[in-house]
Design goal:
Elements: E1 2-6, H1 10-22, E2 27-30, E3 49-52, H2 58-67, E4 79-80, E5 87-88
Antiparallel strand pairs: 1-3, 2-3, 4-5
The structure holds zinc ion.
Zinc ion is lined by residues 81, 83-84, 86, 95, 97-98, 100.
């Protein structure tokens, strides 16, 4: 198991978990109920965490998150290559990884 996301914002943590589950990644939340311990231990250690159950899925899940819930609002035009799944900047017309043309999709 591997932690993929943590935040003091429970809504975001659940949002991340639900998004990953809908995409087929097995994950669960840790520390969901540990906020009561704040004060005794470092606050960041009480944040709820999303853990990927299968480490083999970790990198794919991380990339998926970057293109969905964790996508910065300012980079709204990045696109995901339909051929190889890489994330491309809006300034690229061809996929940097495989050369696939964004417009043909
Ligand atoms: Zn590509």
């Amino acid at each position: 198991m591997k932690m993929i996301y943590t935040s003091e914002d429970r809504f975001m943590v659940w949002n991340v978990k639900n998004t990953l589950e809908l995409a087929g990644y097995d994950c669960h939340i840790r520390n969901e109920f540990s906020a009561g311990g704040a004060g005794d231990i470092a606050p960041i250690e009480t944040w709820p965490e999303v853990w990927i159950d299968n480490e083999a899925q970790f990198e794919a899940a991380k990339s998926y998150l970057k293109t969905t819930v964790l996508k910065p609002a300012s980079s709204g035009h990045d696109w995901v290559c339909k051929q190889c799944g890489e994330i491309n900047s809006s300034s690229f017309e061809l996929c940097w990884s495989c050369g696939h043309d964004a417009k043909t999709n």
